[in-house]
């Protein structure tokens, strides 16, 4: 469940967090909480109703607070005049309005309207191909982060990431607070695409934030950027989320367009771990219907496409965990060969869950852990279902316990093959070093 900190108060978000936690308790689910920090998002200030910009007119943007008119409006970003120069493009409201900078006069930016339209309060401003000087973590983000860390958030999404250093800075702040939240790098800047491999290495997950990315780089480059990011994340065993305008028409309509359904299906076939709805559920007229529609499409693709499964990339030999990674790969290959119904992993850190999922086995993945907060964190990972287990008994007793739990839950039945991976001895809680094939009797 994503909490968008571009909008709402801490009190608003605290209520939603409380609801999600209560529902997890009531329904015995592990829905994770994702705090999406606003980052250096540039926005228009307050604007009068009915303001419309016409092609060819001059329009001024100022950092001085005012109620905007069709000649001048304010921005919350005070350094705009320092970052832009004559000839630069300014896009407003996801590119619906396009301006061209004519002159910078003091703190005011005077522009010509290239494509006009209705100008509304708080709409986003993008500066394609302009290097924005604002830091990745703004003062607002730091206050929001402090709040989020008190709320046991599982994932924190960092907006407008430009380099791996942005991730390192956020991780240091999380660790200093004594927390273990995982980080999602939102890719929505051209600089991020230039540094994508080092960003993926530094982060825990990636979000392809197509809204801002589609106006920060050429729109026609977004599809291939999406496919490249997903492929790199799959190989690195890092979850990847596809976001923005997945089913945009359902803000107003009870059914998606055919193109939107295809977009969702293609994201699944690309190898995404998760698909994200935003305005469709935050402000749309059909929030339940849009979720149902997306679930139907995802389910249909996963049932019919064989290309989704069995991504058996060999682990890197220079990785210090090469032997453990090889064993995880072997368990997935064994599951394919034996047509296993389930692969079971045991983990304290979540590492086994990430690695198993990255190979996309067709068998269901069940992860048992004594680390209770990890159950929610793992909910973002493709195909993973988590169960709490904290007994420290013999290996045979542990395997027997887990088999009984899965039988009781109806996940495995008489005659089913299942693969168990674990670290032996169990009580040492080390890296995965054991794989076992079982048949339910």
Descriptive notes:
By secondary structure, the protein is an alpha/beta fold. It has three domains: 85 residues, PK beta-barrel domain-like (M1 Pyruvate Kinase, Domain 3, Beta Barrel); 109 residues, TIM Barrel (Alpha-Beta Barrel); 118 residues, Pyruvate Kinase, Chain: A, domain 1 (3-Layer(aba) Sandwich), CATH 3.40.1380.20. It has 15 helices and 21 strands. Strand 17, helix 13 and strand 18 form a beta-alpha-beta unit. The longest helix is centred in the first third of the chain and has 18 residues. It starts with a strand and ends with a strand. The mean pLDDT is 94.
Defining traits:
single chain, 441 residues, alpha/beta, M1 Pyruvate Kinase, Domain 3, TIM Barrel, 7-stranded parallel beta sheet, 7-stranded mixed beta sheet
Please give the structural blueprint.
Layout: E1 2-4, H1 10-27, E2 34-36, E3 42-43, E4 52-53, E5 58-62, E6 72-74, H2 80-83, E7 89-92, E8 97-105, E9 108-115, E10 117-118, E11 124-126, H3 139-149, E12 155-158, H4 164-176, E13 182-187, H5 190-194, H6 196-202, E14 205-209, H7 210-216, H8 222-236, E15 240-243, H9 258-270, E16 274-276, H10 279-282, H11 287-304, H12 322-338, E17 342-346, H13 351-358, E18 364-369, H14 372-377, E19 384-388, H15 395-408, E20 417-422, E21 434-439
Parallel strand pairs: 1-2, 2-12, 5-6, 12-13, 13-14, 14-15, 15-16, 17-18, 17-20, 18-19
Antiparallel strand pairs: 3-11, 4-10, 5-9, 7-8, 7-11, 8-9, 20-21
How many helices? The count is: 15
Task: Look at the structure and name the CATH superfamily of the largest domain.
Answer: Pyruvate kinase, C-terminal domain
The value of Rg in angstroms is 24 Å
Helix content: 25-40%
- Tell me which CATH architecture of the largest domain applies here: 3-Layer(aba) Sandwich
Main sheet: strands, sense, barrel: 7 strands, parallel
């Amino acid at each position: 469940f994503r909490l968008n900190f571009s909008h709402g108060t801490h009190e608003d978000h605290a209520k939603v967090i409380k609801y999600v936690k209560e529902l997890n308790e009531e329904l015995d689910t592990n829905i994770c909480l994702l705090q999406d920090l606003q980052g250096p998002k540039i926005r228009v200030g307050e604007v009068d109703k009915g303001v419309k910009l016409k092609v060819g007119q001059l329009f001024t943007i100022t950092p001085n607070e005012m109620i905007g008119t069709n000649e001048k409006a304010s921005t919350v970003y005070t350094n705009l005049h320092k970052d832009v120069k004559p000839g630069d493009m300014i896009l407003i409201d996801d590119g619906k309005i396009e301006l061209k900078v004519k002159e910078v006069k003091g703190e005011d930016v005077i522009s010509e309207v290239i494509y006009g339209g209705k100008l509304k309060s708080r709409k986003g401003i993008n500066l394609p191909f302009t290097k924005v000087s604002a830091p990745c973590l703004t003062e607002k983000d730091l206050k929001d982060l402090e709040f989020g860390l008190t709320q046991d958030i599982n994932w924190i999404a960092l907006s407008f990431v430009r380099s791996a250093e942005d991730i390192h800075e956020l991780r240091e702040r999380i660790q200093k607070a004594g927390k273990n939240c995982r980080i999602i790098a939102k890719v929505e800047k051209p600089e991020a695409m230039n540094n994508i491999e080092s960003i993926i290495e530094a982060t825990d997950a990636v979000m392809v934030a197509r809204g801002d990315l589609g106006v920060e780089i050429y729109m026609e480059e977004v599809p291939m950027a999406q496919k490249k990011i997903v492929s790199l994340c799959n190989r690195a065993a890092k979850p990847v989320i596809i976001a923005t305008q997945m089913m945009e028409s359902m803000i107003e309509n009870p059914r998606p367009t055919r193109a939107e359904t295809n977009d969702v299906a293609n994201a699944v076939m690309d190898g995404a771990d998760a698909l994200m709805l935003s305005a469709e559920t935050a402000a749309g007229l059909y929030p339940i219907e849009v979720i149902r529609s997306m679930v139907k499409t995802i389910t249909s693709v996963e049932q019919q496409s064989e290309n989704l499964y069995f991504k058996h990339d060999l682990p890197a030999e220079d990785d210090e965990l090469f032997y453990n990674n090889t064993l995880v790969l072997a368990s997935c290959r064994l599951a394919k060969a034996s047509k296993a119904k389930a692969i079971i992993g045991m983990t304290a850190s979540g590492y086994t869950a990430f690695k198993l999922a990255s190979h996309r086995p067709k068998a269901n993945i069940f992860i048992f852990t004594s680390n209770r907060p990890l159950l929610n964190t793992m909910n973002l990972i493709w195909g993973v279902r988590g169960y709490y287990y904290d007994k420290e008994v013999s290996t045979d007793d542990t395997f027997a316990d887990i088999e009984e739990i899965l039988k009781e839950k109806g996940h495995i039945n008489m005659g089913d093959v299942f693969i168990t991976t674990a670290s032996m001895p169990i009580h040492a809680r080390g890296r995965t070093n054991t794989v076992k094939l079982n048949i339910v009797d």
